[in-house]
C-alpha cells in the first residue's frame, strides 16, 4: 500500500505542475489582449517622425507576435511565447534610435505599411487597422484552440484524479481489512500461546504418570516371570511322566505290530516265490516256442536271400558280359575307323582312346570287388548259422544284410548309370569320329584342289617364261588376255572354301 501511495504522489505533483503553466499562460494571454486593444493615435504631419516611428514600432511588434507559431500541446511552449511577447513589448518604451536601425522583413506588414505611407496618407491608417484586426482574429483563433486543448487536458486530469481517489479508497479499505485481520490473528496467537502453556502442563503430568506406570509394569513383570517359572517346572515334570507312560505303551504296540508284520511278510514272500516259479516256467515255454518259430523264419529268410542273391549275381554277370562284348565291338569299330585318319586325327584319336580306356577301367573297377563281397556274405551267413540261439544278434545281422542288400541295389543303380554314361560317351565318340572323318575328307579335297591350283600356276609360269624367252608377248597385248588379269579361281580355291566345323 505504501508503495502505491509513493507511486501516486509524484503523479499528483506532475499534474499540478502541468496545470500551473496553463494558468500562467491564460493570465499572459489576457494581458496581451488588453494591450492589443489600446487605441492608436492617428497619423498627423505635425508629429512627423515620432509618430511614424511609433507606428513602425507598434507594427513591428505586431508582426513579430503574429509570425511566432504557438504550441498548443505543451505548457512550456506557451510560457516561452509569453516571455517573447513580454520581451517584444518592452522596446516600445525605449528611445526611437533603436527602431531606426531595425530593417523590416520583406514580407512583413511593417514593410507594406511603410510603402503605403509613402504612397498616400489616408490609406495608411486603414491598412494598419485592417492588419491589426486580422492579427487579432488570428490571435483569438489560436487562443480558442489553446483553451479547447487546455479544457481537454483538464478533463483528462480530472479523470486521473477520480481514478486516484478510487484507488486510494480501495487501498484504504484493504488496509482497514488487513488491520482487522491482524487484530484477529493477534488474538488467535495469544489464544494459541495459552493452549501451548496448558498442553505443556498436561505433557509434564503425563510424563510423570508414564514413569509411575513403567515402574508398576516392571514390578508386575517380575512377579509374572517368577510365577511363569514355577508353572513351567510343574508342566515339565508332568510332561515327563506322561512321556514315559506313552513311550512304554508305544514300545508294546510296536513289538506287537512287528510280530504281525513279520508273519505277513513271510507269507507274502512264500506266495511271491511260488508265483515267480510258475511265471518263470511259463516264460521259458513261451521263449522256447518263439525261438523255434524264429529259427524257422530265419532259415526261410536265409534261403530266400541266398536264392535272390544268386539270381542277382547271375543277372549282373550276364549283363556285364553283354556290355563288355558290345563295348569291345564298338571299340574295335572305332579303332578301325580312326586308323584311316591323318596324323592330326590320329593324335586326337589316341587321346580319345586313352580317355575311353581310363573310363572303361573305372567302370570295371566296382565289378572286381563282387567276389570279395560274396565271400564276406558267405562268412556272415556262416556266423549267423552259428548264432541262431541269440535273437538280438540275429536281428542285428538281418538288419546288416538288409543294409548290404540296399547297398548292392544302390551299386547296381550306380552301375546302370555308369553304363548309360558309357553309352552316351560312346555316342559322343562316334559323333566326333564322324565329324573328324568329314573334316579329313574336306581336308583331302582342299589339299587336292591346292595341288591342282599349284600345278596350274606352275604351268602358267612356265608358259609365261617361255613366251618371254621367245618374245611372243608383245606390248600391245590386252590386259584381259594377260595371265595377271585372269578371273579369280572358282569355289575350289582356298579363298572360297567353307570354314571347317571345329
Automatic annotation (TrEMBL):
Gene Ontology CC terms, in alphabetical order: cytoplasm; nucleus
Domain of life per record: Eukaryota
Residue numbers spanned by region Disordered: 28-111, 466-502
UniProt entry keywords in alphabetical sequence: Coiled coil, Signal
InterPro entries: MTUS1/CCDC69
MF term (GO), any: microtubule binding
Compositional bias per record (Basic and acidic residues), positions renumbered to this chain: 78-88
Endpoints of the signal sequence: 1-17
Comp. bias intervals (Pro residues): 486-502
Record-given protein name: Microtubule-associated tumor suppressor candidate 2 isoform X3
Classification lineage: Eukaryota, Metazoa, Chordata, Craniata, Vertebrata
